[in-house]
Amino acid sequence: MTGGVTLSAMLGRAAADTPDGAFLRTREGDLTYRETEERSAGLAAAFARAGVGAGARVALLMGNSLEQVVVWFALARLGAVHVPLNTALLAEQLTHALRVAGASALVADAEFLPVVAPVLDRLPELRRVVVNGPPGEPRYEDLAAYRDCPDRAPRAEVDELGAATLLFTSGTTGVSKACVLSHRYLARQAQLHAANLGLRGDDVLYCPFPLFHIDAATLTVGAALACRGTAALGRRFSASRFWDDVRDFGASVFNFMGATLTILWKRPPGERDRDHRVRLAWGVPMPAWHREWEERFGIPLRQVYGLTDGGVPVYDPVEGPRRPGTCGRVIPEFDVRIVDDAGRPLPSGRIGQIIVRGREPGLVMNGYHAMPEATARVLRDGWLYTGDLGTLDDDGYLTFEGRLSDSIRRRGENISAYEVEQLLTRHPAVVEAAAVGVPSELTEEDVKAVVVVRPGASLTAGELHRFCVDTAPGFMVPRYIELVPALPRTPTQKVEKFRLRQAGITPATWDSQARPDHDQRQAGD
Q1: Which of 297, 321, 350 is the last residue of a domain?
Q2: CA contacts within 13 A on the Cβ side of 358
Q3: What is the CB neighbour count within 10 angstroms for residue 52?
Q4: Which of 75, 302, 86, 311 is nearest to 209 (CA)?
Q5: Residue 523: which region, alpha, beta or left (left: phi > 0; alpha: psi -120 to 50)?
Q6: What's the whole-model pTM score?
Q7: Are 330 and 313 in contact (CB under 8 A)?
Q8: Are residues 380 and 250 in the same domain?
Q9: Which residues of the chain fall below pLDDT 70?
Q10: Residue 485: inside a domain
């Protein structure tokens, strides 16, 4: 399937129709639609000269910036595959991500070179590192030289259903996987998001979350492109700067996730709580006290249900009937079912696994890159098995009931329990570990690690926590650690994680935030 249902083609049309409209906004300034088109076309020509063509996989390790979006659209123009990476990754996780993606080139902000340098010798297939900022070493290329290219690359004809982006999402019983998202997926999710939230050309969509998340990329930049509005990107979420960003950027819409609403709610009420032009905020999760939040800030909140693997099939109606407690209603472009363990549909109101499929091509991911077995487990007969639990009523309203998967949702980040456990067992004094989610006062979950110390070794929870801080990205570091003599197991020797979740926080649990003095030494038997 070829044609114009791609973000690159959408940018070309927008640049022709509304050339002087502000498309991108950051603290660096604005870029119009025409400027974004011109700059991405020039950068694409430079990449093409360097040997980057259709199908080449190029990783990005960049903070939110105008430059990152321009690089993204330059790659899209060539039909190359864009691979945005979590900027919190340390050397081991970065090596894994680059190896899984099979990236032949990396574009990185200069500030991330200290983590890039140690991995290069392990990745002979990574032939080119282009640096945004002073390269510092001869083995790196300067992105500024690419920007100076006088040529303009033509827009490649691409298969709409072919790979456009590899977006990493945490696994549940294995390492992180890269979702293969097609050109059509990115474009149609952007269009559907704009349509179902009633976004307009005069809207400024503000997102403080990173561009390696679907929220900032497809559902902010892409959605702004779909409605000919403006995408305003914050560098990172900050409670103290949030409302200043909203006001300075002129935001009319923003998205929330994780603990965003809770953190903003906990700040002292002030005279400027309603000093903004925001008309809508959307995201997950919706707190029980959302009506009070709406009243204080004067902003209606709308929930959705979605996931990188399956797009956003459910929206809380912006207009029309809403049903408290639900995520919203299934939109016409998707089918959603609730099924039992055997994949059989369940009747209205029964809890089961949520599965989704698009009613048109390309609305869910193509699969997990280079992981055919993992793909086959979740994509069956055209349906994506989400691993989430829910109920569906007769009118198509979905209620989210939890997760089947062994993952932990913390501050908007899906964290693989397996990867946390692998991190913990790298400590020489740890023989085994289990990671679970426990309720957080900021909504969603915090990470608790239950750890068995190696016989003959001596270790404190504080020492283990410091090891994690020194060797892993912050989102993987457990808040809570409990040292135990053994983990509970089934007769088949599987860890009974439900027992650990039920136990929650106990008197023996060390809390890195609230109880730093509670650091009793545990010796292995």
Answers
A1: 297
A2: 17
A3: 22
A4: 86
A5: beta
A6: 0.85
A7: yes
A8: no
A9: 1-3, 170-175, 490-493, 515-525
A10: yes
